[in-house]
UniProtKB/TrEMBL annotation:
Signal peptide annotation: none
Name of this protein: Nuclear transport factor 2 family protein
Highest taxon above the source species: Bacteria
Start and end residues of each SnoaL-like domain: 10-98
Pfam families: SnoaL_2 (PF12680)
Length: 114
């Protein structure tokens, strides 16, 4: 079974390829993806649909600043090519993402990408 850090590294690889189907396979059926500036997305299929929409609307690249892991958690500090920054917390159980919580500034995002 993969460690939380290994799951996160696979998530990053798939994210940077804009592979919504592949990334969705890393989540539990009843997973929650909560980007705190947005409404939580519940369920693997809804998370897949979210990534399909996001990858279809913007070219997104996640550049790793730091990765930390502690028990069932992997934590990512990231930036993108425009300097937009954030962090994500991934609770990983049985090799699958159960909860993802992301922190980033919605106003900064809108200024950079509107």
């Amino acid at each position: 079974m993969q460690t939380p850090k290994e799951v996160l590294l696979k998530w990053l690889e798939l994210f940077n390829k804009a592979d919504a189907n592949g990334i969705a396979e890393l989540y539990h059926q009843d997973a929650i993806n909560h980007q705190v500036a947005l409404t939580p997305v519940e369920g693997k299929e809804n998370i897949r649909q979210m990534f399909l929409r996001e990858f279809g609307s913007a070219e997104m690249v996640c550049i790793v600043e730091n990765i930390f892991s502690d028990g069932e958690w992997a934590i990512l500090e990231w930036k993108d090519p425009k300097g937009f920054r954030g962090c994500g917390f991934f609770h990983i159980l049985d090799g699958k993402i159960k909860l993802q919580r992301g922190y980033w500034d919605k106003l900064s995002f809108e200024r950079l990408y509107s």
